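Table S4 entry, 5-oxoprolinase subunit PxpB.
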Amino acid sequence: MQSDSSSPPAIHWLGAQALVLELPPPATLDRQRRIWRLAEQLRADSDFREVIPGMNNLTLELRPGANASTLPARLRRLWQRADGAKEAARVVEIPVRYGGRHGPDLEIVARHCGLEPDEVVARHSAVRYTVFFLGFQPGFAYLGGLDPALAAPRRATPRQKVPAGSVAIGGSQTGIYPTASPGGWQIIGRSDAVLFDPARQPPCPLRPGDAVRFIPLEDA
C-alpha cells in the first residue's frame, strides 16, 4: 500500500440511500487503483446495491435494510486497508485518423501548444493511457496520461453535436466520444471503433484500469 493514507477520504451522504467516498485532488493512478480494488470488494457486499467508481471518488447505493449508521466508519476502515497494487492491464489499441475532416481542431491545439500538427499526433499516439473511469455518457472513458505539452483549453462555445468516435483533448485529459453528443473538447481525430453498444455484452469494450494506445491511420 502506498502513501495515500496521509490524505484521508471525505465520506458524505448523497440523499438517504447512497454514500460517496471522495478524495482530495489531484487524481493519481495509485488512488484510482485503490478505488477500483475497493469497488471490487464492495460489489460482493450485501449492504450495497450498486458500486460506482469515479475519478477520485466512489459512490455506493445502499440496499434496503442496510445498517446505514455503521457504514461511514466501516468504509473508512476498508479504505485504509485497500490495496492499490499494480495489476497487469489489458492493452486496447484504437485506430485513429487525425486531422482534416476527422480532427477539425488539430491545428488549433497545435498552435496553442506551440507545436506542429504532426508533432501533436506523434505525442498523442506515443502514450499508453490508463482508463481512470467511465462517465459523462455511457462508454466515455476518461484517460489519464496525456503529455502535459498537449494540454489545451476546452472550446469557448461547445459544439451541439460531436460525431461518435471523436478523439478529443479537454484541459489535461483526452478521451473518445462513444456516441454523437454535444461537447466542448478539442477534436483532433476520429476512430471507427465502437465504444458503446447496448446490444453487446459488455456494452463498452473499455473498463477502468485498461491501457489504451491510439494507432494513427492514413486518411481515407
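The longest helix spans residues 29-42.
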